[in-house]
Amino acid sequence: MNHTRITAEALRYRLNLVRGPLIDDGDWDLDRMANQSVTAADPTVDGAIRRIATAWTRAGLDPHELCRPWSGPAVDRLFTENPELVDALDDIVRVATRSLAA
């Protein structure tokens, strides 16, 4: 599994959940943020990826899809039915924004 790719998709998915007229993901270099987050080796990101990947596979989703843009009813259902996974996404966002600011 490519942790940087998974982190980038997690960031993209989370931004899509809160997207509004004031949020444009074009303002964010998600690949750079993901790379810095993974490179920082923060256990928060590792734990969040592990929680998401475990729930993902238990839900019957293809693990290879973790490295591609997350979309579709099955993915949305996973996060709707498991609000703790949204918390995991927020953990990734926090580390990513902190890493970007450093």
Assess the beta-strand content as a share of residues. Answer: under 5%
Give the beta-strand count. 0
Structural class of the secondary structure composition? mainly alpha
Cα radius of gyration in angstroms: 13 Å
Q: What coarse outline follows from CA principal-axis ratios?
A: globular
Distance between the termini: 26 Å
Helix content: 55-70%
Unreliable stretches covering 5 or more consecutive residues: none
- Helix segment count? 5
**Strand count, sense and closure of the main sheet?**
none
Chain-averaged pLDDT = 89
Instruction: Give the topology string: H per helix, E per strand.
Output: HHHHH
List descriptors.
102 residues; mainly alpha
Brief characterization of the structure:
The chain is mostly helical and 102 residues long. The chain is built from five helices and no strands.
Could you describe the 3D structure shown?
The chain is mainly α and 102 residues long. It has five helices and no strands. Helix 1 crosses helix 2 and helix 4 packs across helix 5. The chain is globular.
Topology:
Blueprint: H1 3-18, H2 30-39, H3 43-58, H4 73-81, H5 83-101
